[in-house]
Specification:
Elements (H helix, E strand, L loop, with lengths): L13 E5 L2 E6 L4 E4 L12 H9 L4 E5 L14 H8 L2 H18 L4 E3 L1
Parallel strand pairs: 3-4, 3-5
Antiparallel strand pairs: 1-2, 2-4
Length: 114
C-alpha cells in the first residue's frame, strides 16, 4: 500500500461507454465488485488506483460514472443540490439494470458485491 498516491500513476483498466454512461473496468473473473467514488467524482484522486489494487486480488472491478463527468467541491455552494440530483435511486437502478449489470455480465461477471 505504500505505492498509493504516487505521482504519475496510470490506470490499468479501461473506460467503456454504454450509451451516456462511462464505466471504468479492470480485472477479470466471475466475482465482480461495484466500486464507487466520493463527491469529487470518477476521475479524482486515487479512485482508479484503488480499483486496480482490488482487481489484483482476482476481481472484475466495475466503476460507473454516476455523476456523468461532473463533480462537486463540498466546500463550495451547491453540494446538497448536486447530491440530490446525482443520487436519485430510480436513475441509479435504471443504470444498473440496463447498462452496468449487462456490461459486467458480458465481461464475465457472475456474482456481485460492493
Amino acid at each position: 500500500l505504500d505505492r498509493l498516491g504516487e505521482q504519475g500513476y496510470l490506470p490499468k483498466g479501461k473506460v467503456v461507454r454504454v450509451e451516456d454512461l462511462d464505466i471504468y473496468m479492470v480485472g477479470s473473473g466471475g466475482k465482480c465488485v461495484i466500486w464507487n467514488y466520493d463527491i469529487f467524482g470518477f476521475n479524482s484522486g486515487r479512485t482508479k488506483e484503488l480499483a486496480d489494487l482490488l482487481a489484483e486480488s482476482g476481481f472484475l472491478v466495475v466503476m460507473p460514472d454516476y455523476f456523468r463527468g461532473t463533480f462537486q467541491d463540498p466546500t463550495k455552494p451547491g453540494a446538497l443540490e448536486f447530491l440530490q440530483r446525482t443520487t436519485q435511486w430510480t436513475n441509479i437502478k435504471e443504470d444498473w439494470d440496463k447498462k452496468i449489470k449487462p456490461t459486467a455480465v458480458h465481461h464475465g461477471a457472475t456474482t456481485f458485491g460492493s
